[in-house]
Write the structure tokens for this entry.
Amino acid sequence: MTFSTDSQRRLIWHGMFLFLLGLLIGFVEGQVSNPRMALAAHLEGLMNGTFLIALGAVWQFVRLPPTLTTGAYWTVLYGTYANVIITTFAAVVGASSLSPITGAGHNAPPWQESLVTIGFGTVGIAMLVSSLHPGGLGSFFKILDGSLGLRMMAGSG
């Protein structure tokens, strides 16, 4: 498979980097204030890395104006990296904001809890916007039905 765009290669590179970061976080799960949150950070690294690799693989099929393409690219990168970083920070300091299951029984100083709340809030917004707005990853729904030039292997004649 050849990659047609620098953006495609960069998305795949960032995906591999986040995947590696997720693996490394897994080595220190037991060394932080909240091991359950560290497990979540480990999995976030693996899942967000895999997501970026998959996104890089289909990036060439997304047909958007340059401004929207750039916006979608940076929004997705922010959302995936911030997700791993904020979750790791929460594990290290023992924050429980917006994480009732993984944060149960843990509390951090108010400024750290606020930072985690703001961080998770911006991640949620970034990922939602990149998934739903017409120039964002909502375009993948168009990819699935073939309207952006990618035809499904099964059932298309």
User: Anything to note?
Assistant: DSSP finds five helices and no strands in the chain. The longest helix spans residues 66-93.
